[in-house]
Amino acid sequence: MALPARYGGLGIENPVTMADLENANSVAATAELVKAITEKKTEFVPDQEMDKVTKAAIRKLKQDLYKSLHETIRGQLSESARRNFDLISEKNSSAYLTCLPIQQLNFNLNRQEFQDALSIRYNLPIVGEARHTNCACDELNTVEHALSCKKGGYVALRHNRVRDYIAAELTRVCDGTEIEPSLLPTNGRDLPEGTITEDNARLDISARGFWNTMDKAMFDVRAFNAQAPSNCNQTIPLTYTKHETQKKIAYLHRVREIEG
């Protein structure tokens, strides 16, 4: 919990761990001022270049300590817990913990939402008086199950939230943004094996002017559980690559040859 959010913690510093370092940093940051006071100078003009060097050194010391603590904790975890720790330490995966709780952007969480978010983050049981212990599919409603079960609805909610957010942002800069646009029929066109050829096929988003003026760009979103059995036997970067490749096999050639 004492680590910064980007290292898998909550940013709640432990004064016992940080006291000596913070004291040393304070001494270093105020050394020039202390010298001026002890020498009884009547004027003090701080050396801005020296301040930059000192601040950079302080930041590096803290980052080195955080990295060391991160690796120490990581080495003590089980394989499953270590993978989860790596996931929550990924870039931007902890942004909701450090951003401003702006209501207009739905960044403000109530108590139950915040507790649920932490339960998902640290793979803890989700608790609450009005919670269903079983999923809609009658399986035990654990965090792991909720992230994978398509019948329970949470997978679709996660996917649609990301899709709608991206579409809303594209609307600000692109023309003709659509959600789930129908793809043009293939009319029997010979496409590589694995390509989706059904007439009612759709991608998540289309927008004009993203790459070039009036050109249509197509986007598709995939929400997946990195801890699912089908994903946990490979590294996290390879998991991303696998799902990206699956999407490309299904739609890339159709979009380029039919939509393009």
Summary of the model, kept short:
The chain has helices spanning 15-29, 31-38, 48-75, 79-88, 95-98, 111-121, 143-146, 154-173, 236-259, and strands at residues 175-179, 205-208, 216-219. It is mainly α.
Task: Explain the layout of strands and helices.
Layout: H1 15-29, H2 31-38, H3 48-75, H4 79-88, H5 95-98, H6 111-121, H7 143-146, H8 154-173, E1 175-179, E2 205-208, E3 216-219, H9 236-259
Antiparallel strand pairs: 1-2, 2-3
Helix pairs in contact: 1-3
* Spatial order of the strands forming the largest sheet: 1-2-3
Helix content: 40-55%
What's the pLDDT, averaged over the residues?
89
SSE topology string:
HHHHHHHHEEEH
Report strand %.
5-15%
Largest sheet: 3 strands, antiparallel
What does this structure look like?
By secondary structure, this protein is mostly helical. Helices cover 48% and strands 5% of the residues. It has nine helices and three strands; from the N terminus they run ααααααααβββα. The protein has a three-stranded antiparallel beta sheet with strand order 1-2-3, with helices on one face. A hairpin with a 7-residue loop joins β2 (205-208) and β3 (216-219). The longest helix is centred in the first third of the chain and has 28 residues, at 48-75. It starts with 14 loop residues before the first helix and ends with a helix.
